[in-house]
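Quarterly update from the structural biology core.
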Amino acid sequence: MAFSQLAFLALVALAQAQETVLGVYIFSRHGDRTPKALPPTKLTDLGYREVYDRGSYYRNRYVSSSASSPIYGISADQVSLSQLAVSAPADNVLQSSAQGFLQGLYPPVGSELVTQTLRNGSSVQAPMNGYQLIPIALVSSGSGSEDNGWLQDATNCNNAEISSNSYFSSAEYDDLLASTSDFYSNLTEYVNGTFNGIQMTYKNAYSIYDILNVAEIHNSSFDMPDRSFQESLWLANAHEFGLAYNVSDNARAVSGMQLAGEIVTYLNNTITAGNAGKTSNKFGIQFGAYATFLSFFGLSNLTEASNDFYGVNDYASSMVFELFTTTDVSSSSFPSVADMQIRFLFHNGSSANSSDPTAFPLFGQDSVTLPWNDFVGNMSTFAIKTTEEWCTTCGNTTGICAEYAPAAGGDDGGDGSGHGSGISTAVGGVIGAMVTLAVVLGLEAIILLVGGLRVVSKKRLAGAGPSEMKA
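Predicted structure, tokenized:
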């Protein structure tokens, strides 16, 4: 029996050793921060350390010259900006977390490696021991999310807000609101006056837990029974999952849908670049709020893999999508799509140096890996890839969505094309002009009849005598 187990482990190790990682996409939560209820929120020193350690971990896994699963063709020490795409919403905590992560992923290279000789013969060394500057792009949703107690407000998606609001009229919400009334009243002494008595209800479950969690980490005098703290966490999880995902209404999960589209688009660009013999688009990294995690957990059916996916993930947690192959790879022979696979991994928390992320099966399947085409097919059932798709899902009709809005006053069948009535805009304009002309001519006829006037040609008028010009 022992021999069989050893043989199996050896085969697993051999299979992993033959894998080549072609590209990676990571979605990460920010590090430890100050509470939402006391804006503006800030990344703490602990949070800075957490995301820096996460970046260092992924450097050792994917980037460094001695990486355990190196990304094929990636620059090990000095960053190649064409290989990396980093994004975050316009948010102090999330953008700062992205910067801290990148410092661990690509640390300073030393001044001797980044010294430049100018035309006049003088030398210039990069500051901060060769600190590497990596730009962070802004994503369209999630701005100011860490100052926002209810994260759907940060999506700017009308239907997502409406859908989330409907949770507050659900039977589940009503039951928890009523059954936890005494529990929240008894927590008042632990929130230091941040909330008044009326606010101490399940309606503010996450904001209350957030205050308690920050105190649990940073306040040495905080002394709350562990059982009560855990119950506040459980209730916060139920509250936030209810706002982020609903099996019968995908609009609520718009942030997860948008993330899915970004993942597929980026990794598809990795494949396109590889087929063209390029080493660009190797590593995509995005920072975002926990609601996006929860939305994606629900959409991808990760909740079947573990009940933990019903809960808010810890600070500095990360989802990882590895694009890999088991075939030989070279600069002249990039694998075919049929030979590519995806592995999903998740790490809940910031203990980057003490544990590896865990692989989980997506979409309710048994295997933790699946062919690239199957992955794309499953993601495409809910992924948002274009602005038009986002506008349609959200029901937005102004701003960037104005050009996709249905024609005013017409029934377009919901496709946003303006053709539901069977009359195009151009034809409608012609009809309108003709109707206007008919009205004008009708008015002229009435005036002529009532006034006793008649229409006379210019030629006849020019030759008419005084008697002919009278009525």
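Confidence is low (pLDDT under 50) at residues 5-15, 410-471.
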